[in-house]
Amino acid sequence: MYVYTAPQWLLFFFTYCFLGWVWETAFVSLRTRAWTNRGFLFGPWIPIYGFGAILILWLTLPVRESIPLVYLLGMLGATALEYVTGAAMERLFHVRYWDYSKAPLNLNGHICLFCSLGWGAFSVLLVEVLHPPVERLLLSLPAAAAEIVSPLLLAAFSVDVTCSVQEALHLKELLGQLAENNAAIAKIQARLDEASEAIGKNSAQLRRRLQSLEEQVHARLQEPLIGSEARSAGRRRLEAAVEEARSRRQALLRQLEARADALMESGQRSTASLPDLPSLREKLRQLEASLAGRRNREYRRAAELLRRNPSAVSSRYRRELEALRRLAEQRREGKKNP
C-alpha cells in the first residue's frame, strides 16, 4: 500500500497539472502554428489533468501490479471526472470548454468512447511509466521543503482559479448581453417590417425612402474599416476589429432608427394603429448607447479566454460565441503577421 502525505499529494497534483499543460499547449500550438497558452486558467497548469492523475493513482495504486485493472479503473474514474467537470462548467458558465458532440458514442458532448479508452491507456502510462520517476523525485525532497512549497503553489493556484472563474463569468455576461441585444434588434426589425407594410403599401415615396436607407446601410456594412496600422500588432488589430464590429452594429441601429422616423412621419395619420413606434425608437437609442458603452477591455478578455480554449462552444449563445471567436482570430492573425 502506497501512503503519501498531504504535501506530497499536492506536489503530485501540481506536477501533473503542469505536464498536462505542457502536452496540450504543445499540441495546440503545433496544430495552429501559433503559441497558445492552453487551458481554462492563466498559469501553466490544467487542473483536470492534476485531478485526473490523482484520482487514477488513488484508484489504481492498490492494484498497481495488474495492468487490466489499472486500465479499467483508470478509464472509469477519469471518464466520470471528465463528465462531472464538463457538465458543471457548462451549467455555471453556459459554455462547453471541450466538446465531443461530433464524436461517435458520446454522452451529452462531455465524454465519448474514444476519449474514455484513451483515459485507460493514459492510466497505464501514468502508473507504469510516468509516476515512478515523479514519485522518486518528489519523495526525495525533504519533508520541510514539501511543506513549504506545496502551500505556496496552492495559494498561487487559488488566486489563478479565482481570476479565471471571474473571466469566465464576464464572458458569460457579455454573451448574455449580446444575445439580448440581438434578440431585441430582430424583434424591432420584424415590427418595422410590419409597420412598413401597414403604412407604406400605398405610398411610393415611403417605399423609395426605405429602399434608399437600406442601400445606404448595406454600403456602410461593406466598407473595410481595419487599417494597415491596426494590423501591425495583435492587440491593436483586435481593438480595430472590435471597433469595426461596433461601427457596423451602430450603422444598423441608425438605419433602423431612420426607418422608424420615416414610418412615424408617414404614419402620423395612422398612429392609433401603430402606437409602439415611438417606444421602438427609444429602444433603438438605448441599444446604441449600450453598444457604445461596452469597453474594448471586455472584448479583449473574452477573446483571450477563447484563444486559450479554441474548442469552446455554447448551445445557448452559439451565434454570439462565434462572433467573439472571430474577434479572437483577428488578434491571432495580427500576432502571426506583424
Question: How large is the count of helical segments?
Answer: 10
Distance between the termini: 56 Å
Radius of gyration: 27 Å
Indicate the proportion of strand residues.
under 5%
Shape: elongated
Helix/strand-derived category reads mainly alpha
Strand order of the largest sheet: 1-2
Number of DSSP strand runs: 2
Helix content bin = over 70%
The major sheet is characterized as: 2 strands, antiparallel
Instruction: Indicate how many domains the architecture comprises.
Output: 2
Uncertain parts? 224-232, 269-273, 334-338
Mean of the pLDDT scores?
Answer: 80
**What is the string of helix and strand elements?**
HHHEEHHHHHHH
Report on the structure:
- The chain has ten helices and two strands, in the order H-H-H-E-E-H-H-H-H-H-H-H.
- A two-stranded antiparallel sheet has the order 1-2.
- By secondary structure, the protein is mostly helical.
- Strand 1 and strand 2 form a beta hairpin.
- The longest helix has 58 residues.
- The chain folds into two domains: 136 residues, no CATH class; 173 residues, no CATH class.
- The radius of gyration is 27 Å and the shape is elongated.
Question: Tags for this entry?
Answer:
338 residues, mainly alpha, two-stranded antiparallel ribbon, 10 helices, 75% helix, elongated, disordered C terminus
